[in-house]
């Protein structure tokens, strides 16, 4: 009986995500004046569908088939999650008055999809994750206050640069290897964090500050700076991180200077660097071969990607049903490969919904950048959006064999403290810029 | 705020470029979504059935009644029957189908292993479960219908009795396996009690599927390959003639014809018909090692090809450094060349099918408990093995083998059969007897390859192939 219920719930989840997507699209159309209607209503319906998704998910997870009982610890975790999401909605409404509700909804939706999946895979990680939700949101809620005191944050170009360099190099001195990559620092054996996550933050501020100056076409310093970061990350075997920085650099460079020749030169240099990396580093070759034909070496080089493909393929369009899949076979399924677990149990339609939520977020990010009358803020918003967009693309494409796999976390969804903290804070800054520029007329 | 504001034009071009970048990632994510949908909607079916997928192997749901396995005419080959508490798997045909159907009672093998996930997949799962709660009807997994014909399989298996060996029957235009017998065999109904004696029986190796995994020297059936290479690399091959004296020396090696018979003046058609070794050694030297290797590898020697059961890889060893003695041995199918009976049948099928080599397959479709057909398999080509002119040439010389050569034992009145015999010297005792054929030569509907280990000659293999061809002509409408 329980299995039947879970299987019927697959359609419920598909319904929630369809509703969420439809209301998001409607909101944007209303905003653009394409149709008439109430944007506030769309936002409310979205919130309700998140709450229902949360309730459905945790009722299934907590139920103990055969005993006709619910597991209290799981219910408590679900309750804490519900409290967090409701409290979070309330707090952002208060602190980020007149922020973009669509963006918050997407963030909450992604966090909740990740949270349910985590609770299903490993309840202990889900408990830690909710603490990180709290930390991330607390930091985000304090941001407007901090920014009020640092209104002219663009003046501190050099400190940003030096701090970024120190952080990105720190694992070389204090770090430890995790999954082949030397990009983690462990503090007191308690918190593991990835300094390169924090660098994403300071890096974008630096880039925006630099290109907002009068002498804005001086691309030499940022180029060298980026090259150093990319090289250090490559040395640490964090290829995904290196790729994110490189793509963000190219995007911001293009937006700020519009110098197509420079961008083409950068892409050319990147192609040459990839060829060099391909022939020089064994681990780069392994990745590329594992992407070209993971089936050639199913038990070793292709193992991760093949297991991920098995998970996504067994989910088909509507999923196996929450708790009925076997995503635990997928390596690092809680962080990098969480999208495979989502696809296995919720189905590919839900997976597309996750992609749509991300895309809405990036659309809003671009929207925020477009409304800025001020060059610094426009670049800042565009830069953060690029970081999130490329990171999302790299890992979604990687776990589905669309592009070669380089391990990074899926923002808002994956298990991981520093990634969650930084991603939410980026949204906080985007919202803040959005609010700052509400009064100016956007050129959309 | 005192941050300087943009001049209007600058601001506009900045916004234009932000839009460019947004459209770039919009396109990226759109491509990704399209890829994901395509992957799940079409590729996923083949991926979940991959043998490395841990899901089916550990997936044991005792409530599910495993699907039936039936032959092309609906004859039941494997069925689950419930005793007081659980389902037992029964195999009505016993050892006849053992290597194809396999077993699910003591580990898994054969189709039971390869299609395990399908056999446990519930069609309309929610309806079945709801129905099960109210009516107590069992949850029924999908059945699979094989391409194999039970009557033909029995004929092939019984024809091998008394020998170790294998027989493969295929439909050349599609790659359907119509029968695939391997002897000696075992009874899958008794597998758990006989397991220990089966795995220790190195003398007979009954668990080995000789058809797909047995590697044998091809002997003279390899002359089909040598003839193809001659056709491609020797423009005058059709007018070339050679005086056979029963034996000849090449490099350090003396090559003899069967019983040292002197065949006199022979052209390629006659040499094929009587299987003249000295003729083929001569043209083998003319073709050269590297050209021969190119043809062999195009025919998938030294390669794996897709097949729904475990395969051995046929091997071809010549390269640029090979000695003359190795080249001549290889061109008559001796030396280091090894081939599986299935691969011999696949190559023969390519000749019969105008040069297109079809992927061999054994499951035609799955079906629901109401008999609805699902996942119908479509034939797929896996290589272009020969040109049309080449197949016409090969078919002509292979017809001569049955009409006035070493394969007369397979002749059927009123039917033109193209074939090749082979007696392969080997280290295990008497020569292996090979026979590979297709019929009717002008519009082939059946390919049959037989090997009988240590049979000394090909008479029994020819007789079995003749019966199989006769059965196929009577039973398969073409």
Question: What would you note in describing this structure?
Answer:
The complex is a heterodimer of chains A (444) and B (478). By secondary structure, chain A is mostly helical. Chain A has 2 domains: 301 residues, no CATH class; 128 residues. Chain A has a 3-stranded antiparallel sheet with strand order 3-4-5. A two-stranded antiparallel sheet of chain A has the order 1-2. In chain A, helix 2 packs antiparallel against helix 3, helix 3 packs antiparallel against helix 4 and helix 6 packs antiparallel against helix 7. Chain A is globular, with a radius of gyration of 22 Å. Chain B is globular, with a radius of gyration of 28 Å. In chain B, a hairpin with a 6-residue loop joins strand 18 and strand 19. Chain B has 17 helices and 19 strands. With 478 residues, chain B is α+β, with helices and mostly antiparallel strands. Helix content of chain B is 39%, strand content 19%. In chain B, helix 10 crosses helix 12. In chain B, strands 4-3-2-6-14-15 form a 6-stranded mixed sheet, with no helix packed on it. Chain B has a 5-stranded antiparallel sheet with strand order 8-7-19-18-17, sandwiched between helices. The model of chain B has no long low-confidence stretch (mean pLDDT 91). The chains are: A mainly alpha (444), B alpha+beta (478). At the A-B interface, helix 1, helix 9, helix 12, helix 14 and helix 15 of A face helix 1, helix 2 and helix 6 of B.
